Amino acid sequence: MTDRFATTPFGGRSLSHAMFAVQEKTARAREKLAGSDANHPEKWALLRELTQARAAFFLSDRTIAVLEALLSFYPETLLDGSAPLVVFPSNAELSMRTRGMSSATIRRHLAALVEAGLIIRRDSPNGKRYARRGEGGEIEHAFGFDLSPLALRVDEIREHAAAARDMERAIHRVRSEITIHLRDVSKTIDAGLSEERPGAWEAYADELAALSGRVSRHLPLETMKARRDALADLRKKVEKAYLDTLSNEEMSGTDSSSEHHIQNSNIDHHFERASEKSQKRTAAPETAGNGDAKTEEDRKAEAGRSQAMSKMRQRLLDAKLKRAQHSDTRPGDLAAGPVKTAALPLGAVLEACPQIRDYARNDIGDWRDLMQTAGLVRSMLGISPDAWERARETMGDINASITIAAILERAGEIRSPGGYLRALTDRAEIGQYSVIPVIKALNGEGRA
C-alpha cells in the first residue's frame, strides 16, 4: 500500500488531473511488471537518454540537472520500478548538489518533473521529507519524491532519445550539404568571373547572396531542406552556365596543360575583416533561442564561405570596373551622369581635411579631383573595394569621398578604417549619418 500512500500534495498545491493520471499509470505499469524479469535500467545511462530526449518531454537542461541531483540520493545503481523509489533530500542538500541553485528555482524544476510524469510527490502530513524506519532499521514509509515513474517509462524515453539522435544526424547531413553547395556555387561563380566567361554571373551572385549566411542549429529541418534544395537548383544552373562556355580543347585538357588562372593584381589588405564581422548587417533573426555554440568544424566552414564570398565580390567589382573602362571611364570616376551638388563647399572640406591634398595627382580643384583622390586614399587606409563601393552607393559619391577625407584626418584614432566606414554606411542607410557635423567638428578641432 506504500505506493497508494500520500497521493495528494501538501499545503496550497492542488491535485491536478495530470498528477492523478500519472499515479494511476504508474500503478498499472507496476502491476504489469510484478513477477517479470524485466531489465532494470542503470540510472545514469537512463539520465543520459532522457537528456537527449528532453525536448519531447519539454524539459530544460536545468530541469535535468535537478533530476540528476535527485538520482544521486538513490543509493542503488539500477532502478527497479516494481516498487516505489522514494528519495527525501532537504532543499539545502538539493541546492548543494545543483551547484547552489536557489530554492525557488529548484521548486520550479521539480514541478516541471512532476508535470512531465517522471516523478511523483509523496508529501508527509507536515510537508517535510523524511523516512520512518522500523525496529530493524528498514524504511517503512518514506516521504519525498518517487523516482519509479522514470524507471517505468524507460522504453518511451529510449524511443524518444533514438528519434532525437536521428533528427540530429539528419540536421547535420543537411547542414553539410548546404555548406558544400555554398562553397561549390561561390567558387564556380568566382571562376566564371576571373576567367571572364560569358554568363549572368552577377545575377547568380545575387541569388547566392540571398541564400548565404549562417545556418542556425535551431532552424526547423524543413526550412533547412528548402534552403538546400534552392542551393542545389542554383548549383545546377551555375555549373551548366560554366560548362556551356567550355570549348572542346578545354573539356579534353588537364589543369596543368590548360590553366586559365588570372592573378588579381589588387593588393588591398582587408584590415577591417575582424571589425567587419562585428559591424556586419544581419537579416531577421533565424532563432528565438539563446544562440548556439559553434564547433571548430562550423567555424572553419563559415570562414571558408566568407573567404569565397569575399573573392566573388572582388570579381564582381573587377567586372564592373572593366565595363567602366570599356565605356571610357576610369576606375575611380563616376563617369556616368553629372556630379550631384554637395551640401558643403569644397573649400570647407579641404580646410577641415587638409591631409588629402598630399595624395592628389595635381591639386584638388573640384569635386572630381576629390573623388579620384579618395579612391586612392581608401586603398592606402586598407578599406576593401566592396566597402568603398557600398559607401558610394549608399551615401553618394561626394559624401563618400568627404567621409574618406575625414577618416584620413583621424587615421591615428581609428583602429579599423574599413570597419568604421561600414558602420557609417549602415547609419547612412537608415538616415542617421551626415557629413556636415563631421566637417564642422574637424573645423572646430583645427581652430582649437
Question: Mind sketching the topology for me?
Answer:
Elements lengths: L16 H17 L9 H10 L8 H12 L13 E2 L3 H7 L5 H13 L4 E3 L7 E4 L5 E8 L1 H5 L1 H41 L6 H11 L9 H24 L3 H5 L20 H7 L16 H31 L19 H7 L14 H14 L4 H11 L1 H13 L7 H13 L5 H13 L1
Antiparallel strand pairs: 1-4, 2-4, 3-4
Helix pairs in contact: 2-3, 2-7, 3-5, 7-8, 7-9, 7-12, 8-9, 8-12, 11-17, 13-18, 14-16, 15-16, 15-17, 16-18
The main sheet comes to: 4 strands, antiparallel
- Determine the structural class based on helices, strands and strand pairing: mainly alpha
- The end-to-end distance, rounded to whole angstroms, is 91 Å
Report the portion of residues in β strands: under 5%
Number of strand segments: 4
What's the oligomerization state?
A: single chain
Q: Helix and strand succession?
A: HHHEHHEEEHHHHHHHHHHHHH
Portion of residues in helices?
Answer: 55-70%
Low-confidence segments, given as residue ranges, are: 1-6, 255-293, 323-341
Radius of gyration: 34 Å
Overall 3D shape? elongated
Folded structure, characterized:
The protein is mainly alpha-helical. The chain has helices spanning 17-33, 43-52, 61-72, 91-97, 103-115, 148-152, 154-194, 201-211, 221-244, 248-252, 273-279, 296-326, 346-352, 367-380, 385-395, 397-409, 417-429, 435-447; strands at 86-87, 120-122, 130-133, 139-146. Strands 1, 2, 3 and 4 form a 4-stranded antiparallel beta sheet that branches. β3 (130-133) and β4 (139-146) form a beta hairpin. The longest helix has 41 residues, at 154-194. It is elongated. The chain starts with 16 loop residues before the first helix and ends with a helix.
